Amino acid sequence: MVSIATICSHSALQIFHGARQEGFxxxxxxxxxxxxxxxxxxxxxxxxxxxxxxxxxLLHPSVQRGLIKKNAVLIPHGSFVEYIGSENILSKLKVPxxxxxxxxxxxxxxxxxxxxxxxxxxxxxxxxxFEDIAGRVFVKFGGAKGGKGFFSVSSxxxxxxxxxxxxxDSKTAAIQEFLVGSRYYLHFFHSxxxxxxxxxxxxxRIEIIDEAYRGLPKINEDFFDYTVTGNxxxxxxxxxxxxxxxxxxxxxxxxxxxxxxxxIGPFCLETMLTKNGFVCFEISARIVAGTNxxxxxxxxxxxxxxxxxxxxxxxxxxxAEAEREGKLEKVLS
Amino acid sequence: MVSIATICSHSALQIFHGARQEGFxxxxxxxxxxxxxxxxxxxxxxxxxxxxxxxxxLLHPSVQRGLIKKNAVLIPHGSFVEYIGSENILSKLKVPxxxxxxxxxxxxxxxxxxxxxxxxxxxxxxxxxFEDIAGRVFVKFGGAKGGKGFFSVSSxxxxxxxxxxxxxDSKTAAIQEFLVGSRYYLHFFHSxxxxxxxxxxxxxRIEIIDEAYRGLPKINEDFFDYTVTGNxxxxxxxxxxxxxxxxxxxxxxxxxxxxxxxxIGPFCLETMLTKNGFVCFEISARIVAGTNxxxxxxxxxxxxxxxxxxxxxxxxxxxAEAEREGKLEKVLS
Amino acid sequence: MVSIATICSHSALQIFHGARQEGFxxxxxxxxxxxxxxxxxxxxxxxxxxxxxxxxxLLHPSVQRGLIKKNAVLIPHGSFVEYIGSENILSKLKVPxxxxxxxxxxxxxxxxxxxxxxxxxxxxxxxxxFEDIAGRVFVKFGGAKGGKGFFSVSSxxxxxxxxxxxxxDSKTAAIQEFLVGSRYYLHFFHSxxxxxxxxxxxxxRIEIIDEAYRGLPKINEDFFDYTVTGNxxxxxxxxxxxxxxxxxxxxxxxxxxxxxxxxIGPFCLETMLTKNGFVCFEISARIVAGTNxxxxxxxxxxxxxxxxxxxxxxxxxxxAEAEREGKLEKVLS
Lengths: 333, 333, 333
Description:
The structure is a homotrimer.
Chain A: E1 3-7, H1 12-21, E2 26-30, H2 32-39, E3 48-51, H3 61-69, E4 72-74, H4 78-84, H5 86-91, H6 101-107, H7 110-120, E5 137-141, E6 151-153, H8 156-166, E7 173-177, E8 182-191, E9 196-207, E10 228-233, E11 235-236, H9 241-258, E12 265-274, E13 277-284, H10 311-324
Parallel strand pairs in A: 1-2, 1-4, 2-3
Antiparallel strand pairs in A: 5-6, 5-7, 8-9, 8-12, 9-10, 12-13
Helix pairs in contact in A: 1-10, 7-9
């Protein structure tokens, strides 16, 4: 039987907890300093640890051999991809991975995401050339993790000033239309075993800017910081579900054409619901941290499963089914 | 045994899920286009569908005869009332309805709501004459669904300008005092079978304006849009519960006088908790979408029920009890 | 066997519900007016009531004798401490109390809290002298309950004007640095029986100021009101958990040195997560109302307990274990 392994961060508690519920052994790749934290959650702590100095060490042949020997399947998550790098996951990581590892490459570049969304016929934020800045725009940087360093400005002058102030190269900026609406982060799961797409829930990311109003009427500029600090639970108007699920299906279908066999397992569409419908500003091609809200299931999962079903557990259920039917190749890469 | 039927929108997943938990057969009145979405949630999908081109078709004699033949009880929800119309529900709909259908008439007119709240001795927002606009006021329109088209202004000039800009007739506007406080949408259930009023939970509606601060310091006017997009869970300070429940009881008692036998089943008080206590700006005389947050029960329902109790399930429990005791007339109209 | 008793407010429903789950008898010290409200929640209502005109009456020898006769253990909560007073709890309350009653003294004074946080090596907001106000500062008053009366200003003149306007003595104000970040209220439980510190969840308090943005672009000053009205659920980025739990441990360790045997049972660290990490602006040395979100467990409790575990139930579990092992003295004071 395979074991479930991942790096101890991001959504690892949920992944291990779900694995344990389905009877899998678990392995945590951890820095020594976080072992104690995971030990504080006995039902979500891994059965055993592979201690590393740096998560990048996971790529070391001896570490990989150890994991392969233990029949480990790695579950990728946001920090996993950040620490190891999608390129290394493709070229240097030999341990079996849950999901299609090519999808991680497609999520990690803005231009690839745009190609994907275009092929999906899903609306995404318009890119704006520097010369065309005529009103409020949103500015992102490729290396920015978790929204850190993003900002919004209303003119070319302001844009350039902000780049100087932040000491960033204005030429590397992605300038996008500023979207007005409600943010919804939509959690999906594509099950090759059940041959279906499941809508498992939604959340809203909490960013430092979310408390900016507490500084009104005089705003501290420090509040204009898009760093993600956590997540809050939400549900959508039910009349929006057809659009939301349709969008998920289109992204899934496009993925099958762009990188066979396409998305496997959990993915997330980060959207802004504007008065003209959803605009998708990001795809995450693996489990997202917003699912940490729902270790016992979301407000949608009881409509699909009798048991409390987290995304972490859903991964384990899929893996167990694939293993039982001798079809692990359908869910691993 | 009766079947539980409703229009596939708003809170239908929750209603069907609850019905199924209590062993009822379920019928979804649906447009062909949404059937697939409901099929994505196998434990909340109706057992059978009545496909219509337009929800208004529910009123057609042949559709009604079909539902009556199947012993259907219709559960009204927000979209149900919007699509069919409270007047038609009273005069043209022959299928038995859960709850008192007269209550839907009382929720659908602002003047009737005010009469009801006045009789309940529950504070509601003061109406302000155009001539008396002297500071910030809130402006609503009768036809506005889900908050769309509402706005707030600070002077008569601004009010008139806004009406011109939006191309709405200023004479049809309801001008109200602008309330300062925290919004709480309080979910109640009046059980004629148990002869009690239950407090089942609370939520906060998510509106597009709720992310207005993300445009600070320069606000995009587009953000001033009160369209409801979803819901978020909340709990109240426990010391506010006596006031909240008392308000629910007064609204229930007044309903018994205004339209016998008064409210039956779920209703919601949409309130602003100001520093002078609750102000109720709306009554919903049927299940509200905020209860979709709690398919497994809210933070309050475990204090009343041993099992996970959604409002949808609560309806089914009431109906089952009434049927078992041969008292369906107590919960239907 | 002991009974579980508390004042009917704050988190009493949760406490009684948890006590009942673990088989304890329950006693509610209540004003007559709230008895009905608690009766609305049959699974969280106390088995019996001790009716008082004023909660302060709990200190009356006859009331205390009655409780002691019934083998009552009092569970302190926020309103409990507010109504009775931490000094009276130490000197006049003879009924056994769950937890270390000395901790309530340490939470009730700003200077003691600062001493505690300093000893814990946990960052807290810097105190600013009137003369040194040079930018935005946050102003608190000792007697302010639930954030009422707090304000923020940007200059000495503005500070003095605000004090005059509010008719408060500027000399009694605590002037602090204005913090920019996301608020997280972290729920901990120190179990002497299990000899461990548990992280049971997190919430965000809802204050009237939290809807200030709804008044944009013209802000009603009335919105600048920090009165707490309720709570909303949140989760933290998992990579922040080591810092959060470490902070909890340091506060616990410091408490052992400052008031032996230190914190027992639930406590909460009220923090602002800034871009430089957590800043703790308050310690609550007992159950907090934010735990009312989780009567069936939080997004973290399933990682520690197989059963749905609220903080109220956790208290009962600890008390039951101590009683079973004849070690009540380890959890009472």
